[in-house]
Amino acid sequence: MEEEHSMEEGIKEKQAGFRGVQLEEEGKKPGNTDGDFARSMLEMISGTFPGKRQDIRSYSALTLAYIGDVVYDLIIRTAVVGKGNRPVNDLHRLTVKYVSAPAQAKMVQALTDSFTEEEKTIFRRGKNSKPHTTAKNATASDYLRATGFEAVLGYLYLTDNMQRALELVKKGIVLAGMEL
Prior knowledge:
The chain has 9 helices and no strands. It has helices at residues 2-17, 19-25, 41-48, 61-82, 88-96, 101-111, 117-127, 140-158, 162-175. It is globular, with a radius of gyration of 19 Å. 25% of the residues are buried.
């Protein structure tokens, strides 16, 4: 019984250390706005896997889209899981509604006026890129718009601006009428 109690205490301690709980307790909003409070995921990954650092502006649009695809997927999956515990098949079915070229293209169409000049430039680079693959269930134009959007998200992630990435995804979902 004592072992069970100490295991429960250990779990509670780990949960108390979870960043989201800390933010709620301290009345802070998610995001890396307090440099002394938390390190971003990018900082943690870069610290764990050090390597050559390159100017982000020199990255190809497809490289930015490559990482942006994962960033977008993580944002959507996190939001879907946050809606509650469900069978994995249900989670996947809901996620696919948002993580597809047509859905991303719809969001981008609603968001274009919300992009900064820098984001517009990156979007155009991504949209005008020459990917070596094509989407199974999307038109070529939807696929290229989605690639442009992923390039923007990749750029925001690599410049440690996840707050802006989250803002764009949320606003795109709302403006496109695709409420999660």
